[in-house]
Amino acid sequence: MPDMTFVLFGATGDLAKRKLFPALYNLFLDGKMPDAISIIGLGRTHYQHDDFRFVVEKAIREYSRRPIQVSNLQDFLNYFQYFIFDATSKESYQSLHELIQSRESELDIPENRLFYLSVAPQLADVIASNLNASGISQTKGWRRLIVEKPFGSDLKSAQQLNECLSIAFHEDEIYRIDHYLGKPMVQNLESLVFANPALGLLLDHTQIANVQITASETVGVESRAAYYDQAGAIRDMVQNHLLQLVMMTALNLPEQLTAKEIENKKIEVITSLRPIKKEMVYKDIVRGQYTAGEVLGTPAVGYTDEPGVDISSTNDTYVAARLYIDNPSWSGIPFYIRTGKRTNEKSTRIVMEFKSKVNDTTKLLTEGITPNLLIVEISPNENISLRVNMKDPSLNRFIPTSINFSTTAEDQPEAYELLLFDAMIDNATFFAHWKEVELSWKWIQPIIEAFQENLLPLHTYPAGSTGPDAANQLLQDNQFNWW
Ligand code: BG6
Known about the structure:
alpha/beta, six-stranded parallel beta sheet, 15 helices, 21% strand, binds 6-O-phosphono-beta-D-glucopyranose
């Protein structure tokens, strides 16, 4: 791996502490860091380098998936320097440039510069244009920009942001993070069929009745009301994570492809997503908001009673949708997606339901036959299983039984480890490319507008439940149930 400078905007923020420092530390333990690297953390807090190193150390002690190794801890901390930074001040960029250059010559490393934007979205374009204007991003080596979500808040703002970033960076230098793409089981989807021809036979589209993607959470809005009350589940989870999961699921590749070819395939999928007209949103989309209830035995207040949320807020904390991919592979097979805060469980999973050969529902019920399912559990468990019916002779009924295909390897790398490593080695496979992001926003836009114009009901659901009843109806319309 080439030596480089890693400039982290937002180095005193929550993401840096909980995800980025631990990810870098685990890469370090695995020997997956460059021989020489200068990591410069930027923030407004008045830290000295040593204060910052202490923050880094505290973060890895608290959040690293592997314990600290005292013997080489200092070597890791020595990578870090801190710089007090005001993203809107030209002088800040000048001084930052000098610091980067002096570290580069001190460590004798080339001008390979990786910029990580973990900042408020409104600062992303300011920073990108200043990096350009100050000359920091005009390097003799390579330069890359990693951008955290949210990437815009609607189609127009996403396009504007992208235009702005494009002035300073080419598309192949921009790495848009969608941490769901860093989850090992999601990465697995790309090569699942290629590596397992038997599964490929099973996933013959003519045999699949429907596909269900769930990303449910038990947490509420936490301390993020200012952002979340504007974003809602539709922007926070559906536009990015869930549509990325739809793309990754529908890829179903019989061969191994390059990053570029995968990108093209994903674009093909999202382009084939049947558009939903604003006036028709009520038919295929369900939105909900949690009321007071009990989550895993603990009482939980309703959304509008959460700190920082407007008492009259009509924001969506739950979205379920029925969508169709109009391409030869998936034509006519409904995809159901759902995500919600304060539901009964934390689970991200993909379930493919197979068609049943028995049409007599009474027979199905009396004999206990349930549909075969292929279940890909993404988190918190990582597992692939096939649910089949096995006859219990003593009961003379079929009992659903799971065959597990994967033993969960303990100690899997975290999403951010995989993503940071990929960005360092210039592998863009598991990042969201601009066209995917733009087309996702295009598909979402009428839904956002229908929400804003109240063209569909806002259902409620008690905290700790599976979501609003209307989300069940969405499947029952086609004689299906959520799994
Ligand atoms: C983030 C959302 O992108 O994903 C959060 O902003 C959400 O609201 C989180 O809680 C869920 O991620 P994970 O990895 O816990 O499923």
